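Exercise 7. Given the encoded structure of a 517-residue chain, write a plausible sequence.
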């Protein structure tokens, strides 16, 4: 095992406590303090909008961080400097607890800093391995994901209490302190890390090959790929023109999705035209990236379900009864935000359970738990979790008093889905990415989270449309229950499509072959 791994694991544990510590109290803080100037009935919708806009930013900025690291500064330097911005963002949350603009500035800095480092720490872990010890990588990726949830568990359990008992300055200040410690620990391992240098300008880079494929002409043939990419560009412009109606975040993210989707289809239609003008290896590398992006695109519904546990599920928990519990003689009542602690503690249990029991059992009955099979199962299980939480909402809407402990079942299903999708996805993304694009490919993995949260904003905006509201009313369900079943159906449909695509996908091995001292 590389001796430098403990520094990265410890850094990640502190950073995840920092991030989830502030994220998991964000919705309760918005509802109880910052958004008091908004009418009570509109406050949950506005809190969800702020929360998911923040998450979109967090998972959008990996594009910038990955590009800077891969092309200019390397992963270590980019992580270190973005971490300092991250710390400054936490300071703003603690200082501007009662100032709307100052608080939103802090959220912006955290989104920028956290997003900038997010793909790079994962890729930095992968850089510490080569062909001689790559068999250890899965264990470390699992340990990496385990420590994320170790930090998340204690943050989810403690920060709601600190918010209630000591106020937002302390509750947001403690995560800031943990982020400063994370940055210091990461710096301590500087001389022990394997530092893969940034890629030099490459005429066979992904963007160069894609541009050549789109623009290349062939006698007697049109350029259908360029037309498709152009249609995407026009759609992006039209999306930006809708900013006054949709809001900047929805318009800009939709424009980005259209550019990537139609541009990728266009490149795939004409990719063979780049052969001869670029190396065969470069052309096949672009083909591999496009195939990976299809997988990432089908993961987005999972993220739209998963991230709402910190918004929609908290809103639901606020309407449920919280019984008096006793643990070793200590009596306490669960706060709605503390239910999120169920997720990381289950992750820490399920990762070893899967490796020790579930996956060997699957192999024993002749089913190989390939990464894509695991991810497909995870999407389906997350959909099932939302069916359960939707049924709970129907009971609440009918006037029944339900214990908050009933949320344990959907949390268990969603967490099993998370382990199968997210932990597996980190390994899949690194192993499938060409050597010169590790950071950028992992950035696209995180961009899938942005798109997943975009679906949430679009659906929430759609519910406000009079025609949609009338349709929901005719169904006999409340808007929140209708949305729950809608998201579940969306994820189940994509899980079926994912299973079909997984059968056609051929795995590759892109761990580095050389040893770097």
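Solution.
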């Amino acid at each position: 095992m590389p001796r430098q791994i403990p520094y990265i694991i410890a850094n990640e544990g502190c950073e995840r406590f920092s991030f989830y510590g502030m994220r998991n109290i964000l919705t309760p803080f918005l509802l109880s303090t910052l958004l008091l100037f908004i009418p009570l009935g509109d406050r949950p919708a506005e809190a969800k909008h702020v929360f998911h806009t923040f998450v979109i930013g967090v998972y959008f900025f990996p594009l910038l961080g990955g590009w800077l690291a891969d092309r200019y500064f390397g992963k270590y330097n980019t992580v270190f400097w973005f971490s300092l911005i991250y710390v400054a963002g936490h300071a703003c949350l603690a200082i501007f607890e009662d100032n709307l603009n100052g608080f939103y500035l802090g959220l912006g800095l955290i989104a920028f800093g956290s997003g900038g480092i997010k793909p790079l720490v994962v890729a930095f872990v992968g850089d510490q391995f080569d062909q001689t010890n790559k068999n250890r990588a899965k264990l470390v990726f699992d340990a990496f994901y385990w420590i994320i949830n170790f930090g998340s568990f204690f943050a989810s359990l403690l920060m709601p209490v600190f918010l209630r008992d000591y106020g937002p300055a302390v509750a947001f200040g403690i995560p800031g302190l943990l982020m400063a410690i994370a940055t210091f620990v990461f710096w301590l391992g500087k001389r022990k890390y394997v530092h893969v240098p940034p890629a030099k300008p490459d005429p066979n880079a992904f963007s160069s090959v894609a541009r050549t494929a789109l623009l290349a002409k062939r006698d007697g043939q049109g350029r259908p790929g360029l037309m498709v990419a152009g249609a995407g560009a026009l759609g992006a412009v039209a999306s930006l023109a809708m900013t006054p109606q949709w809001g900047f975040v929805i318009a800009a993210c939709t424009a980005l999705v259209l550019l990537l989707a139609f541009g990728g289809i266009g490149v795939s239609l004409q990719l063979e035209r780049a052969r001869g003008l670029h190396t065969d290896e470069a052309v096949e590398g672009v083909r591999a990236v496009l195939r990976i992006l299809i997988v990432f695109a089908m993961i987005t519904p999972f993220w739209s379900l998963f991230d709402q546990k910190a918004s929609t599920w908290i809103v639901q928990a606020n309407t449920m009864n919280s019984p008096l519990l006793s643990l070793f003689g200590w009596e306490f009542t669960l706060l709605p935000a503390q239910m999120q602690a169920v997720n990381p503690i289950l992750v820490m249990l399920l990762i070893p359970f899967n490796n020790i029991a579930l996956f060997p059992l699957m192999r024993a009955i002749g089913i190989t738990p390939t990464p894509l099979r695991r991810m497909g199962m995870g999407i389906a299980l997350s959909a099932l979790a939302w069916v359960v939480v939707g049924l709970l909402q129907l009971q609440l809407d009918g006037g029944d008093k339900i214990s908050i402990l009933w949320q344990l079942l959907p949390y268990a299903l969603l967490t099993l889905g998370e382990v199968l999708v997210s932990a597996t996805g980190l390994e899949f993304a690194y192993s499938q990415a060409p050597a010169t694009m590790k950071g950028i490919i992992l950035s696209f993995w995180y961009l899938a989270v942005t798109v997943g949260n975009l679906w949430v904003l679009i659906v929430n905006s759609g519910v406000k449309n009079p025609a949609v509201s009338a349709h929901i009313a005719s169904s006999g369900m409340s808007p929140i229950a209708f949305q729950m079943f809608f998201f579940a159906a969306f994820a189940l449909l994509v899980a079926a499509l994912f299973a079909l695509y997984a059968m056609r996908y051929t795995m590759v091995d892109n761990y580095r072959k050389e040893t770097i001292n």
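Remark. DSSP finds 19 helices and two strands in the chain. Students should compare their own answers with the one above.
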